[in-house]
Amino acid sequence: MMPKVAVIYIASIGRSGSTLLELLLNGFENLWTMGELFVLPWYIGENRGRCGCGHTVVECDFWQPIVNRMRPLLGVEGNIALFRDTYSNGKFFRPGDLLRILFKTRAVFESKTDSYCSDNFKLLAEIREQAQIRRQKKIEYLVDASKDFYRLHRLSRCRDIDLKVIHIVKDPRAYVYSKIKNDRMSLTARAAKSIRMSLKYTIENYLIEKVLKTVGVENTFFVRYEDLASDPQKTLRSIGRWLNLSGSRHAIHSFRRVPNHGIAGNSMRHQTEEIFLDEHWKNDLHRWISKLVTLLTIIPGRAYHYFRT
Q: With CB atoms 3.0 to 4.6 Å apart as the test, which of 31, 81, 108, 194 could cross-link to 41 if both were Cys?
């Protein structure tokens, strides 16, 4: 019997620093980051997604042998791509899975869960093997930055996957600003979109936390984007202690030069700038929208220590 595959899953609602966190984790010599793994079938099917190395996945010398061996599992209708409905999006409302998260129902779809776990385990085991060959070291954890809470929930029920989760969040006002800053809209239209994004922030973080309760507090780690970007060394030291990686070297000052084969995520994956804390929202977010966002996200905002209690 093959040993379990240890996976660190980065959970977030997006635009919260998950790609930065993943790139930094890639600096640990005993970790291997994969990017948003459930996007892999779409990258193959449309042959346009670039790996972190700059090549398309089908041309990448790391992914190519994995894709060749695992091709039967990598259709866009299969279990790997489940919860990702297009190249760039997935649906929020999935009644069956949503009910299982909220009410912990198990009886239905167990066979689907078994199939999902089996296919993901096979792919993860193949990636781990290739990563160990590439790095010439034992890989303690694979890092999946898929973020999606439905995928997190399904993986949490896989017996052959040893799952740990890092939940990363951002100030809700910064999150909303990131979603509206490039839209040419009237103030009214911006306010309407800000309401939708505020509700998304509150609901999706709540659902992530519901799943984390089943994963167990010892297997979860909480990170704020602002803390990570302000003092990455401190955050990475804390994560290293949590993962018992005290003997693993980390390339904190040269993380951009560590070979990266992650897929999807923020475009910063392909950039070269050093880490900086982006707080443009403090000057650019309209003050009435800021107040509106604060009101609508008051519960998670206080829980994550962004608003004073």
A: 81
Residues contacting residue 180 through CB under 8 Å, at least 6 positions apart: 190, 193, 194, 197, 289
- Domain extent listing, the chain: 5-247+264-303
- Give the pair of three-digit tokens for residue 112: 């689907």
Identify the DSSP state of 255. Answer: G
User: Per-residue pLDDT tens for 59-111?
Assistant: 999 999 999 999 999 999 999 999 999 888 899 999 989 999 998 765 455 66
Contact 164, 212 (CB under 8 A): no
What would the two tokens of residue 87 be?
Answer: 């190249």
Tokens 């600096």: give the residue.
27
Q: How high is the pLDDT of residue 112?
A: 77
Reference 51, options 269, 272, 255; nearest CA is 269
Share of the chain above pLDDT 90, in %: 77
CATH 3.30.300 fits 5-247+264-303, yes or no: no
- 86: which residues sit within 8 A by CB, 6+ positions away? 42
CB 26 within 8 A of CB 262: yes
Instruction: With beta carbons less than 8 A apart as the criterion, state whether 252 and 24 touch.
Output: yes
For residues 271 and 213, give the distance between their C-alpha atoms in angstroms, rounded to a whole number: 36
| Residue owning tokens 């799943």 | 211
Could you read off the pLDDT of 283-296 as tens digits, one per residue?
Answer: 999 999 999 999 99
